[in-house]
Design a protein that fits this description.
about 375 residues, alpha/beta, Aspartate Aminotransferase, domain 1, Aspartate Aminotransferase, domain 2, 2 domains, seven-stranded mixed beta sheet, 12 strands, about 15% strand, globular
């Protein structure tokens, strides 16, 4: 099996697995307790949670608050469904943002979905045309999950902050891969499983703790914003993955750049979707006119790749991201997404390209 679907999820790092196992021990263990209990076992578990929080926070802007969540979807929903205000966002955002237009609209607020360029980049002029002193929130991705393009967050933040609006950044595909310590966001949503950590945990970073209302009620955990018992094992795995990402960020980026350069050679006769330059290079979204992607995936089952977002798989609809950059239905449906990263070898990439290209050529 060759795994080329890094945008959907990433392989668990051995270091993260080891960190988790230490917190899954039974009665003879020392850190399996409830981190919200006041006895010794609870305090030990709480210490592990806080150590993980510090490791995650180290990859984000200095200061602020890290709130653990079940993932980025909960973090994004937690902001968009509780901050009573008008929202401005872009047509290529994740459905965790775009689908919040319904609850926001039901509360009587505007939810503007703005265009992007054919390269998938935010239309800053369109944003300037709608943000005013009555605006309160702008939501934008750091790296797109389907086509890998990178919005100019500094330009977006400048427009938002000029009118005292907050910037919410979906950094799921950027966290641990790109330096976010100078990100101009006011709120950042992230997930552990996109950086070789465990599934089921993410975080919401807040520059100002008071900028978001409580979005999950109960015992008042996580600064009173998100109640619920935390898993020391998941937190520890997240923290270990974050620490490893910080240590390896330059090495991982160089490896991805080398894979990207080779992939562009191997798929030279395919058309790239999204910007060639303003992008994360671990995402290669390409198309070949007339290609039956369903048939291709069926014929190349030993290679794990995607026809788009895993969150929308099975819908039968063309990708909203590819439609937003101007592709027709046929073009969108003839596109594939290859995602690679830390554990992808050059040999795997070359073998996958051979198999995909051979199968595609049989259709032409």
């Amino acid at each position: 099996m060759i795994y080329l679907d890094y945008q959907a999820t990433t392989p668990l790092a051995p270091e993260a697995r080891e960190a988790m196992i230490r917190h899954l021990d039974g009665p003879d263990g020392t850190t399996f307790g409830n981190p919200h209990s006041s006895h010794k076992l609870g305090r030990q578990a709480a210490a592990a949670v806080e150590a993980a929080r510090e490791r995650v926070a180290a990859l984000l802007p200095p200061g602020g608050t890290v709130i653990f969540t079940s993932g980025a979807t909960e973090a994004l929903n937690g902001v968009l469904r509780t901050v009573a205000c008008d929202v401005h966002t872009f047509a290529t955002e994740h459905s965790a943002v775009l689908d919040c237009r319904y609850p926001v609209g039901q509360e009587g607020y505007d939810f503007d979905i703005l265009p992007v360029s054919r390269e998938g980049l935010a239309d800053i002029d369109a944003l300037k045309g709608v943000v005013d002193d009555d605006s309160h929130l702008v939501a934008a991705m750091a790296v797109n999950n389907e086509i890998g393009t990178r919005h100019d967050l500094n330009a977006i933040a400048a427009v938002a902050h000029k009118h005292d609006a907050a910037l919410l950044v979906d950094a799921v595909q950027a966290f641990g891969r790109i330096d976010l310590t100078r990100c101009p966001a006011d709120m950042i949503a992230i997930s552990a499983h996109k950086i070789h950590g465990p599934k089921g945990i993410g975080a919401l970073w807040l520059r100002d703790r008071g900028s978001v209302e409580t979005f999950q009620y109960g015992g008042g955990q996580e600064a009173g914003l998100r109640s619920g018992t935390l898993s020391p094992a998941l937190c520890a795995g997240f923290g270990a993955a974050a620490a490893l990402a910080a240590e390896r960020m330059q090495e991982d980026a160089a490896h991805v750049d080398a894979l990207w350069a080779r992939a562009r050679e191997l798929f030279a006769d395919w058309t790239l979707n999204g910007s060639e330059t303003a992008r994360w290079r671990g995402n290669l979204n390409i198309r070949k006119d007339g290609l039956d992607v369903g048939r291709l995936m069926s014929e190349v089952r030993q290679v794990m790749f995607s026809a788009g977002s895993a969150c929308a798989s099975g819908s039968g609809r063309p990708s909203h991201v590819l439609k937003a950059i101007g592709l027709g239905d046929a073009e969108a449906k003839s596109s594939i997404r290859l995602g690679f990263g830390r554990y992808t070898t050059m040999e795997q990439l070359e073998e996958a390209a051979k198999l995909i290209n051979n199968a595609a050529s049989q259709q032409m």
